[in-house]
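for the writeup, i need someone to sanity check this before i put it in the appendix. the sequnce is what the collaborator sent (i think, or maybe the updated version? ugh). structure was predicted straight from it, no edits. if anything looks off just tell me and ill rerun, i have time this weekend
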Amino acid sequence: MRQFSILLVFVVAFGGAAVLYEQESRKVKGVLSQITDLQAKVGDMQAEINRLNAELEAVKLAERRRPNLNGIASQVLKNEPVAPVSKPAPTRPERRGLVVGDVTSAAPAIRGRGESAEEGEWAKPTVDAEAYEAQSADSDAAVDPYQ
C-alpha cells in the first residue's frame, strides 16, 4: 500500500508538471505568433516609409525645378523684371529632300547559293505592288520545299 501512495504522488506530480508545461508552451506559441505578426507589420511600415521617402525626394526635386515664389514676390515688389519661363520652341515637321539612300537599292547581306550581287530581284529598281505581281507571275512559281 505504501508503494501505491508513492506511485500516486509521482503520477500526480508528473501530471501537474505536464499540465503546467502545456500551458506555458501555449503561452510561448502565442507570444511567438505575436512576434511574427509584429515583424510583418514592421516590414510593411518600412516599405511605406521607403515609399514616402521616395515621394519626398521627388517633391524636393520638383521644388528645386519650380521657381521660388518668395523670390518672385520680392522681385515684383522691387519692380525687377521677372525672368520669363523658357518655353520649348514650336516644333514643325522637318522637310528633307531626297538623299542617296532613298533612291538606291541595297543588295541583301545574305544571298542565295550561286547568286551573284547583280542577279535577282534586289538588283532591279523598285516598282509598285501591282507591277511586281505582274512581273513575278511571268517567273517560275515558288516551290514548296516540304512537298
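Helices lie at 2-65, 69-77, 100-103, 129-138. The chain has a mean pLDDT of 77.
thx in advance!!
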